[in-house]
Structures are given as C-alpha cells and as structure tokens.
Design a protein that fits this description.
With about 425 residues, this protein is α/β, with parallel strands linked by helices. The protein folds into 2 domains: about 5-85 and about 225-425, Zn peptidases (Aminopeptidase), CATH 3.40.630.10; about 85-205, Roll (Aminopeptidase i, Domain 2). Helix content is about 25%, strand content about 25%. A 9-stranded mixed β-sheet has the order 1-2-3-13-4-14-18-16-17, sandwiched between helices. A 5-stranded mixed β-sheet has the order 11-12-20-19-15, with no helix packed on it. It has a 3-stranded antiparallel β-sheet with strand order 5-6-9, with no helix packed on it. A hairpin with a 2-residue loop joins strand 2 and strand 3 (about 60-65). The radius of gyration is 22 Å and the shape is globular. The structure holds zinc ion. Zinc ion binds near residues 227, 261 and 308. The site of zinc ion has 7 residues, from helix 4.
Length: about 425
C-alpha cells in the first residue's frame, strides 16, 4: 500500500483520466490490464479457471478475482459504486448561437448545482460511434463556458440567482454564424474523425481544471466528479492491491462500477439493470453451482455500496442531524436511513465496524435531518434486486453535485484500506445471517 499522498496523486490522475463515465470505465480497465486482469467480452465464452477478470458494458465496469479454491458455495464480496456525475450532454444538432455567438445545445444530466458550472472553462468528452460500429473515446481541450450575466445587467443576481434550464444553460464556444460552424466537427477533429463517419454520440461536459489540494496543511482536495470516482478508485485499488495472506478461503471479490446512478440507475449499465446479476450468474455457472448452491452462495454474500456522503456544512449545520455530523478527514461514513434510502442494517453496521477496527480506520455515521428528504444511491437497488446484505458507505464531501466538489485528503485512502480488508482480510467478516442469541 502506498503512502496517503501517493494514493492521492494516483486518485487525481484517475479523476483526470475520467471526464465521462465511458472514460471512467475505460481508464479503470487500463489499470486492471496493467495489474494482470484479463478483459472478457460478454458475447464470448468465459473461462471457468480461477483468475482476475473484468468486463465493460458501455460506461459501466465489473471486475473480479476468483481464487483457485473458489467453488460452487463460494460467496461474493462486492463493492458497488458509480462512474457517472451530474453534468450536461450534447443534444443532437448541438450547434446553435445568437447575437454573433456560437453556442452549444445541451441537455441537463442528473442534478448538477447549475450555478457551480458558471464561468469555468469546460471540455467535451465521451464516445463517438462511427458508422462501422466502432466506438471512439473523444476529449477536447478547454472549449466552452457558461458565461454569467454581469451584475450590472442583473442587479438582483445576489438575491437569489435564477437560471432557466433551457434559456440560460447554453455555453458559448466561439464567434460567428452558427449556420456555418459545427461543434461536433471540432470534437471529431481531436479524434481524427470526419462528420460523415459519425453514427451516434454520447458526449458530456467536464470541468477543465485539475484537482488541487488546499487548506491548512493541504487538508482538502478539490476536484470534479469526487462523487463518485473516489469510490470507484478505492474499489479498484482494494481489488488490485491485496491478496489473501492467511490462506483462508475468501469470497470472490467483485467491483461493480455502474453508470446512470445520477439519473435513477434504470438502464442496461445502471444498478437497476441486470449487469451485476448477469456477471454473478456467469461466475457461479463457472464454479459448477446449481440453483441450490448458488442460492447458498448468495446468502453468504455481502455488498458494500460506496458513494459520496454529506459532510456537515459550517454555514448550514441546522440542515444536518444534531448528533451525526461527519467532517472531512474524520474517516469514511456509514450511511443509515430508516426508510431504506440507504441499505445499511445492524448486521451490516457490525461488519463495517469490524473492518474499520481491523484496519485502524476511524469512521463516522450519517443520518438525515427528519425535515430534509434523504438522497439515495445504488445500495438499496442492488439489495432489492439481488437480496444480498448491503451497507452504504462513502467519504464525506462538501459541495456535492457541484462542478468542483471537496473532500478531506485522508478519507479516500482510508476507504480503500477498509475495502481492501473486506476483499482480502481474515475470516469472521461475514455478518450474522440473522441468528438471534
Ligand atoms: Zn453519487
């Protein structure tokens, strides 16, 4: 395991390499290849041998380590996370413009804090599929900006900024006649493609600014997409980094990084879709498990759903529960919600406490203020779909869904260490299956 500062610079390079969900899955795949994992295609026969594997479905990735002694009754330890972040996607016919400006037509993706995207230099990134069916990852340099109206022309701006989602969210990217300029051509040029080649595209906006440490003693990290690439990165790090030292039989370690969490997860690469179930079924089949054995293996399986958590905001402490107020660098957060917006229950909490204790990692708890509706994440979705014991965790951040979020520099590495223990640690980390004493 690297030092915390080394971990942080590795995290920053993953954030930089992952401006879109497609890039996040692809750059995760590159890391896995480098670590000796083999990429499998869903349309091909999968090996039954033990080994390290991954599969990419659009902007989602699932990777796993099957130990040599894995059999039909071996359960799964799964870390779930998501690759997407709130942003804007290019509309079809994205080239527009008024008053001598070239602008881009964009659709809002998920729930971004719109104001946080103003007055930043932004890139375009995503995938282009050419008419021959080949997928190309593309990424531009700084190209666009949602320019805010000067205060002289809107004296009430500081009384409560109102941004119309259609009228005001049209970034500028040049000057000229929109009838004679094509934004897509600019994107294609970077990839050496021609407009006539293009069959379709999924392209999003991302901030061009690099991640940066700041604060007293460099205590904080600011970056886009901390929600939720910090968790994807931690899961990968845990999966790649460790190996079982004690020789005890371990569950099959799985990282599932889904797309489309920010828009409800209902897609073929989202957590409400069949991707994880498909992969687990195929791994099970490879161990020779019949239905009875598979159900027994699932009953001993556990999922840790890792996603960003809310740190207490010093200007709005009343929005939080008075007793449960996570702070940056206080350790990763166990998320609890009676209404099952988070899947954590007492056996899951007990498992988490044990993992943190064995890795000497402090942890905190988040629960909503009753007057404020709770957010949700993929944990309850995978729990509902698969019936696997699930707990929701994550690192505490401020400015969630801003173009530039912030976290403490200690917490990402701590999360990775706890997840590593979950994958590779000693026996005794399966929660009780409800046995009462
Ligand atoms: Zn998230």
């Amino acid at each position: 395991m690297p030092a915390a500062s080394e971990y942080l610079s590795d995290l920053s390079s993953y954030l930089n390499a992952s401006p879109s969900s497609f890039h996040a899955a692809h750059s995760a795949g590159l890391r896995l290849l480098e670590a000796g994992f083999a990429r499998l295609e869903e349309s091909e026969q999968w090996p039954v041998a033990a080994g390290k594997y991954f599969v990419i479905r659009d902007g989602a990735l699932i990777a796993w380590v099957k130990q040599a002694d894995a059999g039909p009754l071996t359960g799964f330890h799964i870390v779930g996370a998501h690759t997407d972040s709130p942003t804007f996607t290019l509309k079809p016919r994205p080239s527009s413009g008024r008053a001598g400006w070239l602008q881009a037509g964009v659709e809002i993706y998920g729930g971004p804090l719109l104001n946080s995207w103003l007055d930043r230099e932004l890139i375009l990134a995503g995938r282009i599929v050419t008419r021959d069916g080949v997928e190309h990852l593309v990424r531009t340099g700084p190209l666009l900006r949602f320019a805010q109206l000067a205060i002289h022309l809107d004296r009430a701006a500081n009384d409560g900024l109102v941004l119309d989602r259609q009228q005001h969210m049209n970034p500028v990217w040049g000057l000229g006649d929109p009838g004679h300029a094509d934004l897509l051509t600019v994107v294609l040029e970077e990839a050496g493609l021609k407009p006539a080649d293009v069959g379709g595209f999924d392209v999003v906006i991302a901030d061009s600014q690099q991640p940066q440490r700041f604060g007293a003693g460099g205590a904080f990290l600011a970056a886009g997409r901390l929600d939720n690439l910090v968790s994807v990165h931690a899961g990968l790090h845990a999966l790649i980094g460790g190996s079982s030292a004690d020789g005890a039989q371990r569950p099959i370690a799985v990282v599932a990084a889904f797309d489309h969490e920010e828009v409800g997860s209902a897609s073929r690469s989202g957590a409400s879709g069949p991707f994880l179930e498909d992969v687990l079924l195929r791994i099970s089949a490879g161990t020779g498990a019949g239905l009875e054995e598979r159900m027994r293996a699932m009953a001993s399986s556990v999922c840790i759903s890792a996603d960003a958590a809310h740190a207490v905001h010093p200007n709005y402490p009343e929005r939080h529960d008075p007793a449960n107020r996570p702070v940056p660098n206080g350790g990763p957060v166990l998320k609890i919600n009676a209404n099952q917006r988070y899947a954590t229950d007492a056996p899951g909490a007990s498992l988490w406490a044990g993992l943190c204790q064995r890795t000497s990692v402090p942890y905190q708890e988040f629960v909503s203020n009753n007057a404020i509706p709770c957010g949700s994440t993929i944990g309850p979705l995978t729990a509902t779909r698969l019936g696997i014991r699930t707990l929701d965790v994550g690192i505490p951040i401020l400015s969630m869904h801003s173009a530039r979020e912030m976290c403490g520099v200690e917490d990402p590495y701590r999360l990775a260490r706890v997840l590593g223990e979950f994958f590779h640690g000693g026996p005794g980390d399966s929660p009780s299956s409800g046995t009462m004493h």
